[in-house]
Amino acid sequence: MTKSDAMIEFRDVHKYYGDYHALRGITGTIRPGEFFSLLGPSGCGKTTLLRTIAGFEDISSGAVLVDGRDMAGVPANKRPTNMVFQSYAIFPHLSVEENVGFGLRRDPRSKEEKARAVGEALEMVGLKGYGKRAAHALSGGQRQRVALARALILKPKVLLLDEPLSALDKKMREQMQVELIRLQRQVGITFILVTHDQEEALVMSDRIAVMFEGEIAQLADPETLYRRPNSRKVADFIGTMNFLPAKVLEEGAGSVEIEAAGFGRIHVEASQVMGGATAEGATVGFRPETLTILYEGSAATDRESMATIEEVVYFGDMTYYDVKIDGTEMPVRISMRNVFGRPVLDRGARARVGWSPGALVLFR
Amino acid sequence: MRSPVFRGYAVAYLIFLYAPIILLPLFAFNDSKVIAFPLQGFTTAWFVEMWQDTTLWNAVRNSLTISVSVAVISTLLGLFAARSSTRFNFPAKAGIMGLIMLPMVLPEMILAMALLVVLLAVGIELSLLTIILGHVLICTPFAVAILSSAFQSLDRSLEEAAYDLGETPLSTFWLIILPLVMPGIISSLLICFTISLDEFIIAYFLGGTDTVLSVYIYGQFRFPAKVPAVMALGTVLVLLSIALLATAEYFRRRGIAKAGGKDTGGFL
Amino acid sequence: MASNGGTGGGTGRSEGANGLLLISPPLIYVILLLAAPLLMVVVYSLSLEDGGYGFGNYVAVWTDRINQLLMLRSLTVSLSVTVVTVVLAYPVAYFVSFHVKPDKKALWLFLITIPFWTSYLIRVFLWKVILGFNGVINSGLMSLGIIDAPLQVINYNVQALVITLAHAYAPFAILPIFVALEKIDRSLLEAGRDLGESQFMTFLRVTLPLSMPGVIAAVLIVFIPTVGDYVTPDLIGGGKLPMIANRIEGTMLKQNNRELGSAIAVSAMLVVAAVTLIFLLLNRRFLKGAK
What we know:
Chain A is 21% helix and 35% strand. By secondary structure, chain A is an alpha+beta fold.
């Protein structure tokens, strides 16, 4: 059992590159055995933060703890972490097994034991029998597996992955996403992944830290991030969200009464109220799938509004409608599954839009 | 601007470049003491004469000593400089690198005279060692250029990966960096060796009593009778240079392929 | 290319310290054997015969008619060589860059540079043999019956110096021009032609200006060393056509006058530096954003 319930702990971590404030007071913990992602746009500091765990970047102030131990002064080659680099960094002049066994050079075990460990590691990543191949002759996906085997063979407490899937094509990426999840469950250690792809983070992670400009905007599990983003910026970054201007009418103990154009008066619970509004003021946010087009015979929803269909985008399994609800100025997007028998509507058609107050989020 | 016109021009240009050198084997085998047309018949007498010249062999021995030493020292200094400049930022970097590369733009005469003046003032005797000192000055910039290019094509994360897996900076250099840079090192050794072997001015002015190949050749120019033997020697030297350079080029290309880089077509 | 952040990539020592530590062997070598000697030369040049320091030597050097003549000759020769070499080199560089398949380019460059790596001494001597009164050209043309008497226009004169030096420095000129031509975005040229320009106009208005940094580099790479060349005037001129380098040797060693010799050397370098700077200033619009 670990000494604390945190495998990684950040305590008010700041980092400066000269005058540039790259990390601005990062605080948070990552649990043992968790698949954790650092998500954000380029330049937000996620890779920098990852590298401070690995030991490749110093911090200017604050503390980074791994398994309860402060890593200040501990060089990269002595930390209980291992990293899979964005370029994989496979040593081109060595064979696959020499690459995988590289970290075992200083290990006191016998040659046979080491060879066995290498074999097991290769099998674990699906590269059984590739041992004697030259490293520079591998494909991108194979190189990544070698990088994984090379890191995992050392049984680190934490595996760090720096945008490991960005260099792969779509098919390979989806395959590797599944592979990585499986691997993490099998090995059972903490995985920390850096990515700018929010879909990837949602699919693979137990929890995600969304970062903007050197700060953690929100740290939560995927569902919470998606359904209850704590600011417009986070809401915008994860998936798509519709925003409509809102006016606060009354504030109660655990609820707020608001009015939104086209929707009328809405009673909103405290749990749905977030800070993080932008300069536009109070806004109401809806995900596309929380609005629905009501056909003949559809189940009734809590509330209804009338709308005109402005744009229809057919995606095969889904159709996206941009509809202008009566009384609003901007269209909102609705997604509908193309269930068998459900017609695709035309542009210009009138439709009833159903929705529920419980599905929205208020930013103020 | 049609391609055949350009091609014809380029070929003619190449002929102009190689013309003097073709003369070497032509007249080295020519049975005449005079370098003039028409040719007088085939002979290997000049090669024999060259082969039997003991002074020449002394000069060759000395030159080899110098050139091998210069190749090693220049490459070593070049390694330090190239690694340092491609990997780190340090104060006055541009000025320091400029100083190291300066011999490339200074006329050799100025370098030779400056060194001579200092050596004489300090009272150091001229010898093979002083030639080595001068040659290292002019060869190191070439070593730096070649090795910098080799270091540039190294992926920086390879080093970090090695640290991550438990190695020290020193062992990382030995296990990862050195093998990947090795083709550049070999290239540098060969180039510096060739430059040093052919160099005349510094060898002439900074040399002591021991003969050196280029100075020996220079001396032979004064004797018309010796000229054909010089042609024979020249033929051998040219072939040697070409062989060395082909080897250097081979290693340069292999180095690029191994680290997965792109060939930009030269040492630049 | 260099590391970011405080430590040298997780090693614990600061980056600047790492860098300085590594650069110290070559730096120390160069300070002792290059900076110090050059400084000494300058000091010598300022040392007067009767002790003390001043510009007396420089006055003597600049007012000496022979020095003036030799400096002028050196400049004339190297400027001629530079023009001839660069002009002749440009089409070759253009050919290899635009008319040679990419996988063959390295081969062409290699072939072009081989002669450069053979002994300079021997090459100069070969030109002496070729251009001499009884040399290869004359004997060849005479034995073929093309001429009756040996040509004198190519023996032991400035033209001979120019030919020899142009041959020796040819590859130096080709390579920088080639590199600059390679960098030109081919789609720029296609755009020009797409808009109706002739090939020649595209060359004049797009290719040539964009390749100027390479041309400038070629000019400097040829000009600066040829001014200070010793071997060619010595062997080809037969002692009758010394250039400034021969004068420096003569003064320093034969006349054993270090102070005067140093003054000549420094003066020669200053003249070269001045010419170079003027040239660069005149062409500064081509250098913006280059290198």
